[in-house]
Structure formats: C-alpha cells, structure tokens
Design a protein that fits this description.
By secondary structure, the chain is mainly β. It is about 5% helix and about 55% strand. The protein is built from one helix and eight strands, in the order E-E-H-E-E-E-E-E-E. The strands form two sheets. Strands 3, 4, 5, 6 and 7 form a five-stranded antiparallel β-sheet that branches.
Length: about 90
C-alpha cells in the first residue's frame, strides 16, 4: 500500500520475478532499517511486523511498515510473502 503526499493510496501486486527484476544495482547506497520488530511464531509458521525507514545515500526516501509471512522448512526459515506500506511524509530521520 503506497500513500501519496496528497493522501491517495495505491495497492500494487507484484510477483517474485517482477519484484526481483526491479532490484537493479547502481551507484546509490540503499538501506532499509527495521525498527521495533514484532515476531510471532506458532510451530513452523511466523509473522514479522515492523516499522521501517528506507534511505538512499543516507537520506530518508520513504518509510512505512513491513509484514513478512514466514515458514520453516527443513529447519530453515523462508519468506513466503511480503506486504508493506510506503509513504514519503512523516518519516523519522
């Protein structure tokens, strides 16, 4: 869910291959910092919920909340689904 500066909201659905194709290396330094993550686990399923701040070359680009659905297979945790919100206003520095 992306919230524009004017308050309008857009929902985009992206498959894994489309998501990965959008990750292209360049000279910029990208960083996403999770803040205060909450993790709930029940057997071999888990959920991670966390506010985040995304920076490009050390400057805040946007922020929001990440939600990860996780499954444990053969003793290893894997991401099953990612959902996030994104806004450019009201982000912590």
């Amino acid at each position: 869910m992306e919230e524009k500066a004017d308050g309008t909201r857009i929902v985009r659905r992206t498959g894994w291959s489309e998501f990965a194709a959008g990750l292209k290396p360049g000279p910029e330094r990208y960083a996403e910092r999770l803040t205060d993550p909450a993790v709930d686990i029940d057997g071999d399923i888990a959920m991670v919920w966390s506010p985040y701040v995304f920076t490009i070359d050390g400057r805040v680009a946007h922020c929001g909340t990440d939600h990860f659905d996780m499954v444990r297979e053969a003793g290893r945790w894997k991401i099953l689904n990612i959902t996030w919100s994104k806004r450019t206003t009201g982000c912590p520095a």
